[in-house]
Amino acid sequence: MTTGLNVIELGNPTRGGYTRLAKFMGDCPEVAIFKRFSSLSTLSLLHMQAELEVLQKELQEQVRADSSDQNRARYDLNWQDLISSASCDDDEGSRQWEILQKITKLLHDYRKSLLQQHELFKIASPAKPELNSLRAWMEFEHMGNIWLSGPDREIWTANPLPELVCLRPEAGHGAFMKFIGHKPLQWYHHTLGQLFRKPESDGPHGDTVYYSPRGLTRLEAVVSTALASLLPTASIAVLYVVTNMTQRLIMIGVFQLVFAVGAGVFTNGRMIEIFASTAA
């Protein structure tokens, strides 16, 4: 989690490039955001698919042509004869083997690209606050002050979230953790946190203050544990005080609702898991 101080004169105003940006992303992996190039990847797959389709037809035609020749007909019956045709003086004799070699290499690249794209799309897109933090850090004069002059300078500003991928997205945390990690954390830093955490103005990140997710995880654990401990006691006390049966049923429903909301806010459980725990 990153947050910046107000503009002060002690920062590092020199313009930064790839080296400073890489250092920042390495130290703060939550903002290690890159472009997917999904359209280019898909286009490459389409071209390889088309080429494989052409090669497949060429192979079928070559097999039919070889089967009509007494000497080359054995290529489709004996693999060793097909391999030996590669060293044959007759160019037509090795044509089937050449096509197979091209197909083997291209098919390997095609399957590898398919798997890579599948794995890439399983990586989550960055959260919008993380992307905004990275953009602000790059633009802020006394923080990153990144000035890229190449065609990639607008990658983090011109691309929508689905086209970007984060190497370490916010995962494994509930809504509470994701909420306090942004606006509340900035508010805390500007009120109390800046008294305890000072930026290393002469460091590579300028006036950047980094809050480790571990501290926020501990806070989330404390709050969730406290609520989980108090909720059963509070429900028993309320049901003990309320004597009207209709009101008791209503209170039971209220406490079940509070439990379900708390499970959704403080955990990253799936819908079926929250439903099962509430029903139990």
From TrEMBL:
Which controlled-vocabulary keywords does the entry list?
Membrane, Transmembrane, Transmembrane helix
Top-rank taxon:
Eukaryota
Q: Where is the DUF6594 domain?
A: 18-280
Name the InterPro entries on file.
DUF6594 (IPR046529)
Locate the transmembrane regions by residue number: 221-243, 249-267
PANTHER family per the record?
A: DUF6594 DOMAIN-CONTAINING PROTEIN, DUF6594 DOMAIN-CONTAINING PROTEIN-RELATED
Q: What is this protein called?
A: DUF6594 domain-containing protein
| Species per Swiss-Prot/TrEMBL record | Apiospora rasikravindrae
